[in-house]
Amino acid sequence: MEAKEKCSCRLMIVDWIPHDMAISRPMQIDEHISYRGIIVFILLGLGFMVMGFLSKKQADELSAGNQTIEARVTESKVTEKKGKKSHQIKYAFKPGNEGADVTRCDFLGRKDLWSTLSEEEYTTATASGKVQVRYATANPSNNEPASAGARSSKEILGALGAGGVSLLIGLIGLIRKKRAERAGA
Question: What are the boundaries of each domain within the chain?
């Protein structure tokens, strides 16, 4: 009995599809693509590529010339998502023990960001109130916990790859749209 109800529900959903969307012929991309969609793909592609390049630049800067300093832990939290715990801290330090406090930043200019640590490092940092941080001597706002190691090239390559694919889709769409307009004129 349940099987019949499920089947009839599927048929009802199919009946809701407008007749002009029926799959009677293959969809032609030149018929349905708009300049707005093309621009979105191109801008997304450029945005991802810029993020990838800036992240790579920041990672290279941090690994080229860095110093390690002891920072004070300003906040801490443990979050749980899908049964997996994440131990995070915020910290501040004074490069060269002078000037204004520096916190964790990113290439977008966001400041006072959370840093993820292993459970053991988190316990040590919260108990002592201190954490070892490495920073680029030329740009102290480019910093991360010393235990973080080198930044993942997977994230950088992922941003560059997503940007490249999105840009390629946008450019192909633009070329096809222009060809369709020329053929129709």
Answer: 65-150
